[in-house]
UniProtKB/TrEMBL annotation, chain A:
GO CC annotations, alphabetized: plasma membrane
Protein name: Peptide ABC transporter permease
Family in the record: Belongs to the binding-protein-dependent transport system permease family.
Pfam family for this entry, one: BPD_transp_1
Residue ranges annotated for the ABC transmembrane type-1 domain, each copy included: 118-320
Main location: membrane
Locations listed in the record: Cell membrane
Ranges where the record places region Disordered: 1-22
Keyword Membrane recorded: yes
Keywords tagged on the record: Cell membrane, Membrane, Transmembrane, Transmembrane helix, Transport
UniProtKB/TrEMBL annotation, chain B:
Location in the cell: Cell membrane
Matches recorded under SUPFAM superfamilies: MetI-like
Entry similarity comment: Belongs to the binding-protein-dependent transport system permease family.
CDD domains: TM_PBP2 (cd06261)
Family annotation (InterPro entries): BPD_transp_1_N, MetI-like, MetI-like_sf
PROSITE patterns, A to Z: ABC_TM1
Topology relative to the membrane: Multi-pass membrane protein
Record's keyword annotation contains Membrane: yes
Organism whose genome encodes this protein: Catellatospora bangladeshensis
ABC transmembrane type-1 domain ranges (all copies): 109-318
Name the UniProt record assigns to this protein: ABC transporter permease
First-listed, main subcellular location of the protein, grouped into a coarse class: membrane
Keyword Transport attached: yes
Transmembrane segments: 104-133, 145-171, 191-211, 296-321
Automatic annotation (TrEMBL), chain C:
Family listed: Belongs to the ABC transporter superfamily.
UniProt keyword annotations, A-Z: ATP-binding, Nucleotide-binding, Transport
A biological process from GO: transmembrane transport
SUPFAM superfamilies: P-loop containing nucleoside triphosphate hydrolases (SSF52540)
Organism: Catellatospora bangladeshensis
Source domain of life: Bacteria
Residue intervals of the ABC transporter domain: 6-255
Protein name: Dipeptide/oligopeptide/nickel ABC transporter ATP-binding protein
NCBIfam families: oligo_HPY, PRK11308.1
Pfam families named among the record's database cross-references: ABC_tran (PF00005), oligo_HPY (PF08352)
GO molecular function: ATP binding; ATP hydrolysis activity
């Protein structure tokens, strides 16, 4: 550059010293606000967000729905079941009284069982997602920021956990853990089964978040704003939680929102295989597992729960994708 | 390269060793052990103890572990209560029907491979092809349909898809027989007819994931400067994309495919259960229901071996394709 | 002359890196025995090519990196090995401005929060409150104090750099290390930021260590200049001496590479250095510049030249065969150099 140019510059007035953004009040639009505005413009994400919200509210308020609907999840309507154990009427017994029809043989109402199944599924999936995300954040930040042998150990454990076949391992863990607390012929409590499933997901699920957070922290660690904080005398706590964490919320939120449908699928799969929730507790996986016996005569028994769980997972996935696009506009699908 | 290979093999062996420790520790440190599940009636303490003795469960844990490991590599004598001599690779005897676990596996692993291998070829071909094409035709109707397909597949449940396929092809259209396994060498046509629904179900779900991945990968590669340069210097579209973009885009996808063996194994467990085909997965599920710990343990080990070996193969392939890996 | 504010002696930083197939450790001698003095209120320019160790030196001065050996004295006190808590009061006197206006501001914090961070970390409650102080600082660096609640992404590169400067000023430091503060900016913005720094220096009586690879920017801003090559200071002196009468061959070569608008159109002689900068993993013996120097003799390979003043001139130079001191010296190109010198007509 030329010296003349500097010397002739009028004493340090910066013509661009007004913000580039148009003046619209004096409060700046935070990255979070901007993301929210982008999300609101994404029609797919908003529609799936509303459906998702509707399903969540439906599941959470299951007892209230039962009250309004007037039928409980364990009530049997044997008078509407034919001798071949299939429900009377068309399409699996769909009627004004039983919106989604009846289960073959036992004659329980499918709609209310789905609502309760929704509740079980969401309870397990969100708890597992919260726990795995928390573990993943802590271990990821520790490994990424401290580095050295701590990082090496955590990274090896992550690789190790990824080398374990989840479903097979789950198959193995479930009976051994229950055998630890229950005799071979004891009835196993539903809360216990739920707890074991959440534990299983926690054991395997944290690795993804930990890996992501670790990578993010490693890339942020060397940023100059972290050095600026250190140069001002900031301690480890300030750097990790005040400087780094606010930059991690976006990827964490995205993994969380995409982890929930993953665990919904996982829970249903375990229950489908008979190692998760069992009869008579209402559950998607159990229902579909039962429905396989009646595919020939009553396909609606498979199609209705299958479609509901598909819708649940799909809306969560679409919303999660939308969230990612909104939080990280550079990444295109 | 040799150094890399040795390092990778050692790491794989270490992982397998750790898996065996975890699996073994989990099963045999439990206070309520296998005999309680095996003993149907008349279970008094004396009888349980005698059964434990026969199974070697009263030995120190270390001896049990080394015994088990020795069985795998050189075979061992298990005493008359358990069927006597068990040749390498010995995985013990099923606690429920006394059959050698190795024999069970020899029967069911071909079934599982008959499901997974053709399905994997289908889902990789379909997924990668669809993803690449939709990246090249970005924004067209075809692209939108492909995105819809992959979104649907990614949110579908395997047993739901399997059930629908059964309802449509077996119960409604009646163009396929109920799923079953016939050996490929016995009758290839029956083999295919019995398993085609399982392949379709797996391929639909898994190809969705790969379609999505390869579309994103391809779009990224197409935006690279060197691909644009190739186009700019006058290479035809197909040549530029075929020669430069495709290879760069496909490498990471193949890696992911190799790392996904665990997912594929999980997939076959559900597929076999849905279609009632007796493969490794269904055997494992039944072993769990019956509390047959020796079979479960062997299943965990064998799956870990599959995964670790697949990872090593992928790493080596990657090192061959991408010299940067070797140097790092 | 007064007692220096910052006195650096034998400052050294070696990084261990893994190297080769055997995975053995090797040492990168990034900074190797640097001596510097900075007096209150003055600016020391630190110039050199990328990779010469100037940024590492700057990081060590504010204790973002721990030196391998050597000492740093601030106001007569040795701060080389002070722990974090002992260092804290000194952090208020020693601040840093970074090169990259994008990565140096936390994208999730408002400007107010960024500028207030040093106050918050050190538990300082300025009279009138933090907000008032932050707004004062924003005004001081030429930003609208009402933009307190905006986020970094709403500002241009030059404005972001001003925010970084405001943050460095928050603790009223005595010395600021400016690590290439303008090299990431557009040329037209560079001048504005440099002028701002110069005005601030006058107003607040700040001392600066101004790190740059751009000789023109350093000349504009610095009273004294130190030239670094491969982890060592090869020449240090007053601005006029360094720019008008460089004595080290490397300084001379660097200066000859700067296009001079005043001499536009005239044929001028430009020294072309041949070869690459040697790796700091295995620097040459003796004088580190000898592999690219047209004056190198046997002694340069065996004996390392000390950084000393010679021939009655004030500038210190680390060379066995320095250019002669004197006003006309720079104009002449030594006869031995002809093989390396090419005529360049611009």
């Amino acid at each position: 550059m030329s010296m003349l140019q500097i010397e002739t510059d009028p004493a340090g007035m910066d013509p661009t010293a007004v913000p580039v953004a148009p003046e619209r009040g004096m409060v700046g639009r935070s990255p979070g606000r901007l993301a929210w505005e982008r999300l609101r413009r994404n029609r797919t994400a908003m529609v799936s967000g509303w459906i998702m919200l509707f399903l969540v509210v439906l599941g959470v308020s299951a007892p209230l729905v039962e009250l309004l609907y007037g039928i409980g999840p364990y009530e049997q309507f044997q008078d509407r079941i034919a001798n071949n154990s299939l429900p009377l009427g068309y399409l699996g017994g769909i009627s004004g009284d039983h919106w989604f029809g009846l289960e073959p043989k036992l004659g329980r109402d499918i709609f209310i069982r789905l609502v309760y199944g929704l509740r079980t599924s969401l309870l397990i999936a969100t708890s597992a997602a919260v726990i795995t995300t928390a573990i993943g954040i802590v271990l990821g930040i520790v490994a990424g920021y401290l580095g050295g042998w701590i990082d090496a150990v955590i990274s090896w454990v992550i690789d190790f956990a990824l080398a374990l076949p989840f479903l097979i391992f789950a198959l193995a863990v479930m009976p051994t853990v229950t055998a630890r607390f229950y005799g071979p012929r004891d009835e196993i409590d539903v809360p216990f089964r739920i707890a074991v499933m959440i534990l299983l997901f926690a054991m395997f699920g944290w690795t993804g978040t930990a890996r992501l957070v670790r990578g993010q922290v490693i890339s942020l660690r060397e940023r100059e704003f972290v050095e600026a904080a250190r140069a001002s005398g900031a301690g480890l706590g300030h750097i990790l939680f005040r400087q780094l964490l606010p930059n991690l919320w976006a990827p964490i939120l995205v993994t969380f929102s995409l982890a929930v449908p993953g665990y919904i699928t996982g829970e249903a799969a375990l229950s489908f295989l008979g190692i998760g929730i069992v009869e008579p507790t209402p559950d998607f996986g159990v229902m579909i597992s039962n429905s396989l016996d009646y595919m020939d005569g009553d396909p609606m028994y498979l199609i209705i729960p299958g479609f509901v769980i598909f819708l649940l997972v799909l809306t969560f996935n679409l919303f999660g994708d939308g969230l990612r696009d909104a939080l990280d506009p550079k990444s295109s699908r | 390269m040799l150094r890399f290979l040795i390092k990778r093999l050692l790491l794989g062996a270490l992982t397998l060793f750790a898996v065996s420790l975890v699996a073994f520790g989990m099963f045999f440190m439990l206070p309520r052990d296998a005999v309680a599940t095996m003993c149907e009636k008349n279970c008094n303490a004396e009888r349980l103890d005698r059964m434990r003795d026969e199974l070697g469960l009263n030995d120190p844990l270390f001896d049990q572990y080394t015994g088990y490991m020795k069985g795998i590599f050189v075979g061992r004598d298990l005493g008359s209560a358990q069927g006597g001599r068990c040749d390498a690779p010995c995985l013990g005897y099923s606690y429920t029907n006394g059959e050698e676990v190795t024999d069970i596996f020899a029967r069911v692993i071909p079934v599982t491979l008959s499901i997974v291998i053709p399905a994997a070829i289908l889902w990789l071909g379909l997924g990668i092809g669809l993803g690449m094409l939709s990246a090249l035709k970005r924004g067209t109707v075809f692209d939108r349909l492909a995105i819809g397909f992959s979104l649907t597949g990614a949110s579908m449940q395997l047993y739901f898809v399997g059930g629908i396929l059964l309802i449509v092809f077996v119960y409604t259209l009646k163009i396929l027989p109920p799923p079953r396994y016939v050996s490929l060498w016995e009758n290839p046509l029956d083999w295919a007819a019995g398993l085609v629904l399982a392949w379709m179900a797996l391929a639909f779900l898994f190809s969705a994931v790969y379609a999505r991945l390869s579309r994103a990968q391809m779009l990224e590669t197409l935006a690279e400067d060197y691909v644009r340069t190739a186009r700019a210097k006058g290479l035809t579209k197909s040549k530029a994309y075929g020669r430069h973009a495709l290879r760069a885009a496909i490498t990471p996808i193949v890696t992911i495919a190799g790392l996904d063996v665990g997912g594929a194994l999980g997939g076959t467990v559900i597929t076999e259960t849905t279609f009632g085909i007796q493969g490794l997965g269904r055997t494992a599920v039944e072993a769990v229901r019956l509390g047959d710990l020796s079979t479960i343990m062997a299943t965990v080990l064998i799956s870990a071996v599959f995964i670790v070996v697949a990872n090593i193969v992928v790493d080596l392939l990657y090192a061959v394709i991408d010299p940067r890996v070797r140097l790092s | 002359m007064t007692e220096p504010l910052l006195k650096v002696r034998g400052l050294t930083k070696h990084f261990a890196v893994r190297q080769g197939a055997a995975g053995g450790k090797a040492l990168v001698r990034a900074v190797d025995g640097v001596d510097l003095d900075v007096h209150p209120g003055e600016t020391l320019g630190l110039v050199g090519e990328s990779g010469c160790g100037k940024t590492t030196t700057g990081r060590m001065l504010v204790r973002l990196l721990d030196p391998t050996s050597g000492s740093i004295e601030f106001e007569g006190r040795d701060i080389t090995r002070l722990g974090r808590s002992a260092m804290r009061p000194l952090r208020q006197d020693l601040q840093i401005i970074f090169q990259d206006p994008y990565s140096s501001l936390n994208p999730r914090h408002t400007v107010g929060k960024i500028v207030a961070m040093p106050l918050e970390v050190n538990g300082i409650k300025p009279p009138g409150g933090i907000k008032t102080r932050v707004q004062e600082l924003l005004e001081l660096v030429g930003l609208n104090p009402e933009h307190y609640n905006r986020f970094p992404h709403e500002f241009s590169g030059g404005q972001r750099q001003r925010i970084g400067i405001a943050r460095a000023l928050a603790l009223r430091p005595k010395l600021i290390v400016a690590d290439e503060p303008v090299s990431a900016l557009d040329v037209s913005i560079q001048a504005q930021v440099v002028n701002l720094l110069r005005d601030l220096q006058r107003e607040l009586d700040l001392a600066f260590v101004f790190i740059a690879h751009d000789l023109a920017v350093v000349r504009h801003f610095s009273r004294r200049v130190a030239v670094m090559y491969l982890g060592k200071v090869v020449e240090v002196g007053d601005r006029a001496d360094i720019y008008e009468r460089p004595r080290h061959p490397y300084t001379k070569a660097l200066l000859s590479a700067v296009p001079d608008v005043a001499a536009f159109g005239e044929p001028r002689q430009r020294i072309r250095l041949t070869g690459d900068v040697p790796t700091p993993l295995n620097p040459p013996s003796g004088c580190r510049f000898r592999t690219r120097c047209w004056k190198a003799q046997d002694i340069c390979a065996t004996e390392e030249p000390a950084l000393i003043t010679r021939d009655g001139s004030a500038q210190a130079v680390a060379c066995h065969f320095p250019e002669p001191a004197g006003p006309e010296a720079a104009v002449l190109v030594p006869a031995q150099a002809t093989a390396h010198v090419s005529e360049v007509t611009e």
